[in-house]
Structures are given as structure tokens and as C-alpha cells.
Write a structure and sequence with these properties.
CATH superfamily of the largest domain: Aminohydrolase, N-terminal nucleophile (Ntn) domain
Number of domains: 2
Strand content: 25-35%
CATH topology of the largest domain: Glutamine Phosphoribosylpyrophosphate, subunit 1, domain 1
CATH class of the largest domain: Alpha Beta
Number of strands: 28
Structural class: alpha+beta
Amino acid sequence: MCGIVGIRDAGGVSFSIYYALYALQHRGQESAGISTFDGTRLFKHKGQGLVAEVFDSAILESLEGNVGIGHVRYPTTGANRPENAQPFNFAFRDHTISIAHNGNLVNSRQLRDEYECRGQIFCSTTDTELIAKVITEEMSNSGCIEDAVHRCMRVLRGSYSVVMMIDGVLYGFRDPLGIKPLCLGRTQKGLIIASESVAVDALGGTFLRDVAPGELICIDGEGMRSMQIARASRRAHCIFEYIYFARADAVLDGALVYDVRLRIGAKLHEEAPVQADSVCPVPDSGTAYAVGYSARSGIPFMESLLKNRYMGRTFIMSTQNERERAVRIKLNPIRKHLENGAVVLVDDSIVRGTTSRRIIGIMREAGAREIHVRIGSPSIVAPCYLGVDMPTREELIAHRRDEEEVRRHITATSLHHVTIDALVESIGIGRENLCMGCLTGTYPVDIPGEVSSPVAVDFLDGTYQTRLEKFGTGKE
């Protein structure tokens, strides 16, 4: 669930990376880091906290160079420890290397055991360090970064989008299934690789395209080259990116997330219409869904829960106690909008159910007479192993409960989750090209103890295929 960015620019990059990370802050709030390279030396700074807490102007000015990478972290593999903050920086055979990663490897324990049996040591508990081990080992054999990434795609199992800097050359690559997002953009004097297009927007840049699954991007002083290293028989884009995790104004694999959520909101009304006085979102994750529901139903859109804008995303807080305590601070009811009213309450998902129950309680205390809950995702019945911090099955409210049982638990007047067919139609990507493991319990990679439908991957022995531009020319 992390956010990554890499930039090469004719001017300094530290402030640009900072602004890009700010735009990606929703992807991780535990730690932040930036590494830059000036042609000779590597500069770095990272720490625990939000981007604005980790960096200030003096620190950014000290990060010299025209190429760099950045990271904001929320952990799926690896505990909340200072040594797990990224990017990771190290020297290898006279090379200066920095790497950052978004995703989750399902074979990280197996790979770590193999490397430790060969005498390798680790300074962190993250799977990003494992990716670095694979790359440096292959580089020691062939001396070729393309071969190293080829090796990564053969041995890593799971989701990974990676930005990497080696001796001032910027690289980015994405797993062959395209599970986690990665895109390419142009800034005024350079190029940017980032988790979401919103990072490009933050710099006033131009979104060019998504990095293709299985593609390696190389950006140096001459421009950009790309190589298709692996090609899968189908893709497995994370469906939860569209439901919740990506920012609504992001473009992911050709789909504007806001429009996807509008369409889902309209489907919610079509599937489960109800008489009500107003449509209210759970801010901010439910807003686009509620707008779509209101437009299709004709029921007025009305904010009846006011969000404290200085709160983070409660879904990615570390413990359930923190999430529950945060709800009252985060959301305050507007009593005048709720008194004796029938309200359609729209949110993106129900995971554990405790937050939904608490929100409904707050609205009832404020005077709401009926609360009809409409959810922009199908029931979440299985954990995620590929980069979203979903809990165990036992913690999921929809595990072994039907919709009526969930409705009673959260105390809603009525409850409806969008159907899988309506969700897929709203995204506009075929069901076969989406990872829906958390909704179906069937995963696109082999996971011990789970049902899987693995995707076949072909590995290509190609050469760099395209040169995008010279810096500053603005021409492809």
C-alpha cells in the first residue's frame, strides 16, 4: 500500500519528489524518505511520520542532484521500525544503489531463508531488501541491470512496483500481472515514474501512460528507453485500488478512478433503490459513490458528516483501538441535516464492521430516523496477501455472515453491497484482468493454503524498444 516516485530532471529534484510524495501521502503514513544523486555522491534522508514531518526546506536543500527516488510507507511485510523506512541505499561493487518498492511478496519468507542459508545478512524485515538482494546477486553474475530485473520477475511471487536508482540512472519496473499501479509522466525538464498520476499532476506535468505490466523503464541523460521483459497471459490489477486506495483523481490503467466510483454509485441505486430524504457520503472515501447515487436516484446529495481534515485515513491506522477512537474525532454529525431524516449512507467498503457500526451510532444519536447503507464494494470475505493490509478471515465481518447478518451487526436500517458484475462493468476492465482475491477467495498467484488461479507468464529476450524523448525537447 506504499507510494513510490522517481524523477530525473535538468534541475534539482528534491523539492519535486517532496511534492510528489505529498500527493501520494494517502498511500502510506508511517514513514517517508528521499534519496538523490548528484553524479558523484548519494544524498538521503528518511524518517517515521508524514512527509511534512520528516522533511523541511533545509533538509530538502541538502539533497542535491538531478535524479532521485522517494517513498511513503504503510507496512504489509515488515514491522513499524525505523530501519524499514525506504528508500534503501547501499554500495555494491563501486555502484551506488537506491531502491523503493510498493507491493507485497508472498514468497518473501522462502527467499529470505534461501539467502540466509547462503550466508547473506539482512538489516530490515521488509521484502524490498529481498528485491535488492536478487538484483545485486544477478548483477554480480552478469553485470547487467536488464538481466537482474529479468531474474526478479522469474523468482519474485506477488505484487511489486519498483523505482530504483543506480549511479544516477533511474529505473522503474512493474510485476508481470500489473497488480500494483505505476505510471510515467513528463515534467517541464524531465520525466517522472510514480505510483499514481496525481504525483505527475502535483508537479504540473503531463501524464503519458501507465508502465506496462512486466515492463522495465530506464531514464538517463539521453532520455527514456523501455524493455518488455515479461508478458502474462492476463493481468490482475488490484480491484481495491479502484474501490478505496487510489486517490479519486488518479488514472489507473486507463480508468479515471472518480468516474469508476460515480458509475458504482449509480449501480447501487439501480440494484437497491430506497425512499430517502438525502444521500450522505462517509467522507472522503464515499463521496464519489454518493454523488453517483444521488445523480441516478434524484435524492439530494447532502453532507451530514463533517470530516476533520487533519486526520489521516483510519483504514491504515495500525490497530483497531486506534481506528475506533479516531472515528469520533474524524467525523462530526451535522444534526440539522439528520434530525428525523431517512438517509442513504454511502461508503466504499466494510472490512471489520466496527467503524461502520460506530458511524451509524453517531448518526442515530444526532437524530437520524433511518440509515440505509450502500457500499461500493462487494462483501470482503478473504484477506489480501498482495499489498493491502486486510485482516485475517476471522476479523472480516462478512466472513461466514450473509448481508442480513452484517446489517444487524452494524445496526443499519438496510444494507446493500454492489454486486461483482456491476463493479467490474463500472471499472471497464474485464473480470479476468482483475485481482479479486479479497472478494472471491481465489488469487492470481500461488499462495499456500489458498485457492489460486495462477497466470502464465512468458519471459522475453528483447532489447530496449522505444526512446521517448530528449530532456527539454518536449517531443517524442
